[in-house]
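User: Run a structure prediction on this.
Assistant: Running it now.
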Amino acid sequence: MKIKLDENLPLQVAAGLAAFGHDVHTVHEEKLTGSKDPQIWAAAQSEQRFLISQDLDFADMRQFVPGTHHGILIIRLHSPSRSSLIDRILELFRTKMWLPG
């Protein structure tokens, strides 16, 4: 899967997802840090990447209509420490419970 990680996620997530065989780009490595959401979104879509973020702005289903893009995963934890974010995201991809089919 082609994935783009937003700047609000630990960079260790990229290494973990890459270890699972995913093609991961980060906002940091693409020099998009501090960019507005529309720029992040445009970059993800032009590269046909699934976006992972903690930014609730990407949860607006009126703007990001399901089935019209390459996918979004919004991560929201009660205690979003670096380690809990890394663990939760990697667990989701390890189990693939959230993937259709």
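The radius of gyration is 13 Å.
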